[in-house]
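Hi team,

Filling in the usual template for the complex we talked about on Friday. All components are listed, including any nucleic acid strands or ligand strings, so the model treats them as one assembly.

SUBMITTER: L.P.
PURPOSE: interface mapping
COMPONENTS: two
RESIDUES: 575
SEQUENCES:
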Amino acid sequence: MKSNRSAGRILLVRKWLSRGLLYLVLIVFTIPFIYPFLWMFSSAFKNMSEVFKFPPTLIPTTLNLQNFTAVWQYVPFGINYLNSLYIAVLVTLGTLFISSLAGYAFARIPFKFSALIFMVLLTAMMMPDEVTIVPNFLFMSALHFLDSHIPLIIIPILGSSGVLATFIMRQTYLNLPKEIEDAAMLDGLGRFGIYWRIAIPMATPALAAVAILTFLTSWNLYLQPLIYLTKRNLWTLPLALTGITDEYGNPIWNVQFAATTMAVLPILILYFAAQRKVVESFSLSGTKG
Amino acid sequence: MIGYLFISPQVIGFLTFIIGPVIAIFVLSLFKYNLLVGKYSFIGLENYRVIFTQDPLFWKSVRNTLVFTGGIVPLNIIIALTLSLLLYRQAVGMVFFRTIYFTPVVTSTVAWAIVMTFFLQDKSGTINQFLALFGIHGPNWLYDPNWAMAALIATRSFKNVGLNMIIFLAALQGLPREHVEASMVDGATTLQAVRYIIIPYLASTLLLVTIITVIGALNLFDYILLMTQGGPGNSTMVLAYYVFYSAFKEYEFGYACAIAVVQFLIGVILTVIQWSLRRRLSENEV
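RESULT (copied from the run log):
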């Protein structure tokens, strides 16, 4: 009886120990993922000597708010911010419209070669942008679209990231019940009417996922703005972040971290507020990575 | 008819920005075309002859691409698998930790690369200062030909590993927990349970994640441009960056397209492998 009880206690202690160990490991693992951000935010307030201090101070001893205003000495940061914002919004809206239209058609409207066309479209998802960048650049240059935002808006909507969105929308419609649409069709609503009034409202969770993925991709895009834009006024945020350097091209760290903080923090806040939805959106796109 | 109308924007975009450019790289690869000089002349397969027989940088970029892939794939999968195995149980705080590990995925590559460039500096870099506490004299990571690639592998791993982690987590949701627990009661250690029950259970997911990670690794570009520009001594020159470098630094667009063709063909082969494996796997599962 007594030995039984102590055996139970040992088991309990072992369970607590392994739980404790689990959390310890989990906490240690957070360091490489979250420390860079904490350090970036705190260094945004530091003066240059404190940035290089060791051991690093996570809570800055001084508050150099001028780091944030100094960003504007190097790049027109407000304009860059607005550029990124309006491009990402337009790309998101365009992608939502075109991919839901195509995804709906592939799932619901029977037409010849539908499956074949869809299969061929899917090849786009595996096409790295680096492969198509040179011809697309020459094409945009021939149309005099260099140093404009047009390539950054139309190529993502119509190119490979748009195809990923179409793939997600098609999957969604394949899994949604068809009865309401059939009833609407009997009531004489046309295909576009059904798509707009019934199919779109039914698919809002998937549309939200597509919107999250598309917005983030556009917001973080680096290669395309780099080759299409030379004028600083047209730059998007990722370019602006790389533009905060001295005349030799060396980064002005604390100012750069202030700019990076301003670019990253709103995204992080939205991510933490809606983390379940964001993670779910990325798992829908699991084929791309 | 209406079906074609609905898909037409997507299909026209696909033809214009994917199929058109793919045909164009094949055609342009047969030309000598320097954007600065501005004229082009047909030279047949000359670009390919140079690439395969006279361009050590091409072979170096192929080799470096393989080194990067060979490094990042196992590292990424081991970290992702470890994290997902830690997280898949029902316990307080798991969602919180998942959220943390996934954070770098949603943020911009440029921001991540900037911070990592600082961390990886010579004497004033955070990593070397940390190592110095233990008396280790760390290398100047991004400027040492022996270490630059390793630094890039680690940098990109921690940025993207969350993606693979959630794929594993999704797969683990279906894992019959009783099997694992029963094996533990029978005296199996955790490692044995992982080795003999969980890994076999995840086999198809592992394969899928491996191929996705390989394809992603072949397209390594952003970090090269942001952190090393292919250096030091071309030790981080990879295929995708070599395409960019030939086109936008040397303005040899024909030559760049020929390299892009090689990259394209490697990607096609891997994609075909992935699709056939996936088909076979899904048949097995049904």
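MY TAKE: DSSP finds 15 helices and no strands in chain A. The mean pLDDT of chain A is 89.

Thanks, L.
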